[in-house]
Write a structure and sequence with these properties.
The protein is 39% helix and 21% strand. By secondary structure, the chain is α+β, with helices and mostly antiparallel strands.
Length: 536
C-alpha cells in the first residue's frame, strides 16, 4: 500500500519517508559532530606545532648566549685547569641543550600521533554511521543491483551494490537463509528441467563450416551473476572445483546479448543467441534475479563505501555528503510540510485497506533538538528543512480567532424630531382657551407661563406615542422577544378650565441645563428615551 500526505492527498511515496528523515538527521548530525571534532583536533595540532616552534627558538637563543659566555671564558682562561673546566662546561651544556631539543621534538611527535589516531577514529566512525543508515534505508535517486558468486568450496555469497546521485557508492553484504534456493550452488535443472540452446561452431572433417550445435544447460551450476546498471553477466559452470568448462551469458537491459562458451579453459568468441533461444535465456535470468531479489532486505554489514571515489572512512570532508543529502530531500520534506494539518508536525498517512488508514507523525521539535546541539555553521546545513519553523499551511489545527460583531443599539427616542413652532402652539392654545379674562403678555414680551406649561403636554404625548410606535414595530418583527415594559411617563392630564394664574413679572426663568430655555420646545428634550441593546 502507498502513502498519503497528512491532508489525505495522494503522494508518490512508497516508503515511510518520516522514518527515513529521522535516520538521515541522525546520520548527518553524527557526521557533522565528527567533522567539528576533527577540525578542533587539526587546530590543536597547529597550536602544538607553534608552541614547539616557540620552544625551539627560545632554546636556540639560550644556546647562543651560553656559547658566547663560554667563549669569553675560554679567551680569559690561561691556566690549564681552568681551560679544561670551561671545555667540560661547554660539553655538558651542549648535551643538555641537545636533550631538551630532542624532548621537544619527541613530545610534539607523540601529541601529533595521538591526535592523528583520534582523527582516523573519527573518520572511520563515518563508515559505521553510513552502515546504520544503509542497513535500513535506500538513498534517494540511487541505483542498486545484487551480485552473486559461489566459491569453489561451494559457499555462496551475495552483495547489494549501489550508487546514489550524492556520489556515494556502497557494497552491502546480504544474508542468504539456509532454506533459500541460492544458499547452496543451484543447478539449472532445478529451474528448467529441459533447457537447451544452439551455439554456432566450426564442424566438418574435410570441409570446415559453421553449424549450429545443441548444448544442454540442465547440468550447469549457477556460480555467479555480476550486474551493473542495465548490464549483467550470468556464469554457468559444469564443475564447481574445476571451472574450465561452462558458459558466460551477457545481458543488456534484460535481453540476451552474447553467449560465450568456455571449454578446457579456453573462452570462445561471443556470439549472439539464436532468436528461438533468447526467450529461454531471458527466463533463466528472470528466475535468478527473482530469487536474489528476495534477499534485498537481508542486509548484514557494509563491506565498502566510497564518497567521490574515496573510501568514506578516509575522506577529509565527509560533510559534503550531508549537504548533498539535505539538498536532495528538502523538496520532499517541504511537500510533506505543506500538506500536514499540524503546524508543528510532519504527517503522513498509510493506506492499510480501502477503508482503513493509519497516521504517522514526526514532531519537528524532535529533529531540531538533535540539530540544535551542533555549531552555528553546522546548523546552517539543515536550513532547507526548516525544522525550527512551523508548517506554512492554512489548514492548521489552531482555530482562527473568533471576532464578535458590535452590539446593535436600538433607541426608542424619535430620531431628529423637528422643533415645534412656538407661535403655532400658542395660537392653538389660545383657540382652545375658554372665554374669560383675556391673556396678558409679560413685560418682556414673552408668552405667559401658563401657555408654556400647557403647551408642553401635547408635545410629551406626541413623543410618547412615537416611542411606543417605535417599540411596537421592533418587537412585532421578532415575536420571540417579550415586549419590555415602557419606561415612558404617562401622559399629563389636561388642565381643568379655570382662571389663568396671574402673569409672571420679572426676569425670564433661566434656561434648562442641556437644552434651550424652558418653553414649548423643551418638552422634546425632556422626553425620556429607552435604549435597547440586542447582541447579534
Amino acid at each position: 500500500m502507498g502513502y498519503l500526505y497528512g491532508d489525505a492527498v495522494e503522494s508518490s511515496l512508497d516508503t515511510n519517508y518520516l522514518e527515513f528523515l529521522r535516520a538521515v538527521v541522525d546520520f548527518s548530525v553524527g557526521v557533522l559532530e565528527s567533522s567539528d571534532r576533527v577540525q578542533q583536533l587539526e587546530e590543536e595540532v597547529h597550536r602544538k606545532k607553534r608552541a614547539a616552534a616557540t620552544e625551539r627558538e627560545q632554546l636556540q637563543a639560550v644556546t647562543r648566549q651560553i656559547e658566547g659566555a663560554i667563549q669569553v671564558c675560554l679567551d680569559r682562561a690561561q691556566a690549564p685547569v681552568t681551560n679544561q673546566c670551561v671545555h667540560a662546561i661547554r660539553g655538558l651544556s651542549r648535551g643538555e641543550l641537545d636533550r631538551a631539543k630532542k624532548e621537544i621534538e619527541n613530545g610534539l611527535a607523540r601529541e601529533i600521533s595521538r591526535i592523528d589516531e583520534e582523527i582516523v577514529r573519527q573518520r572511520s566512525d563515518n563508515h559505521e554511521r553510513l552502515e546504520t543508515l544503509l542497513l535500513e534505508h535506500d538513498l534517494p535517486s540511487s541505483r542498486q543491483w545484487i551480485d552473486y558468486r559461489v566459491t569453489p568450496e561451494g559457499t555462496a555469497s551475495a552483495e547489494l551494490v549501489g550508487y546514489a546521485a550524492a556520489k556515494v557508492s556502497w557494497n552491502l553484504e546480504l544474508d542468504i537463509p539456509s532454506d533459500h534456493p541460492l544458499h547452496s550452488p543451484l543447478r539449472v535443472d532445478r529451474l528448467f528441467p529441459q533447457l537447451a540452446i544452439e551455439i554456432p561452431e566450426m564442424a566438418g572433417w574435410v570441409r570446415k563450416r559453421i553449424k549450429l550445435k545443441t548444448h544442454k544447460l540442465t547440468k550447469e551450476y549457477v556460480v555467479g551473476l555480476a550486474q551493473q546498471d542495465d548490464r549483467a553477466v550470468l556464469s554457468l559452470r559444469s564443475n564447481l572445483q574445476d571451472r574450465d568448462a561452462g558458459y558466460d551469458i551477457t545481458y543488456v537491459a534484460g535481453i540476451p546479448h552474447q553467449v560465450a562458451r568456455l571449454y578446457k579453459g579456453t573462452l570462445s568468441d561471443p556470439t549472439a543467441p539464436e532468436p528461438a533461444d533468447a526467450p529461454k535465456l531471458r527466463a533463466l535470468l528472470d528466475e535468478v534475479q527473482k530469487a536474489l531479489g528476495e534477499l534485498r532486505q537481508n542486509r548484514r554489514s557494509l563491506r565498502a563505501a566510497k564518497l567521490d571515489d574515496k573510501p568514506i572512512s578516509r575522506h577529509k570532508q565527509p560533510s559534503v555528503l550531508v549537504e548533498r543529502l539535505i539538498t536532495e530531500i528538502a523538496p520532499v520534506v517541504a511537500e510533506i510540510s505543506q500538506h500536514s494539518l499540524s503546524p508543528t508536525e510532519l504527517v503522513l498517512k498509510r493506506v492499510l485497506a480501502d477503508d482503513q488508514r493509519v497516521e504517522i507523525f514526526l514532531p519537528k521539535s524532535e529533529l531540531w533538538a538533535k540539530v540544535e546541539a551542533l555549531s552555528a555553521d553546522a546548523r546552517r546545513v539543515f536550513g532547507p528543512l526548516e525544522l525550527d519553523q512551523p508548517n506554512p499551511v492554512p489548514g492548521s489545527l489552531i482555530p482562527p480567532p473568533v471576532t464578535s460583531s458590535p452590539p446593535l443599539v436600538i433607541s426608542s427616542a424619535p430620531p431628529d424630531l423637528p422643533a415645534p413652532d412656538l407661535g403655532m402652539l400658542a395660537r392653538e392654545a389660545s383657540a382652545a382657551e375658554p372665554d374669560g379674562e383675556p391673556e396678558r403678555e409679560s413685560d418682556d414680551g414673552e408668552a405667559p407661563a401658563t401657555l408654556v406649561r400647557e403647551a408642553s403636554a401635547p408635545v410629551k404625548e406626541e413623543a410618547t406615542q412615537v416611542m411606543s410606535m417605535s417599540l411596537d414595530s421592533i418587537f412585532d418583527e421578532d415575536p420571540g422577544i417579550p415586549e419590555p415594559l415602557s419606561s415612558a411617563p404617562p401622559p399629563s392630564k389636561p388642565r381643568s378650565a379655570g382662571p389663568p394664574p396671574p402673569p409672571r413679572r420679572g426676569p425670564p426663568p433661566p434656561p434648562r441645563r442641556g437644552g434651550p430655555a424652558a418653553g414649548p420646545g423643551a418638552a422634546v428634550a425632556d422626553a425620556p428615551s429607552v435604549d435597547i441593546i440586542v447582541d447579534e
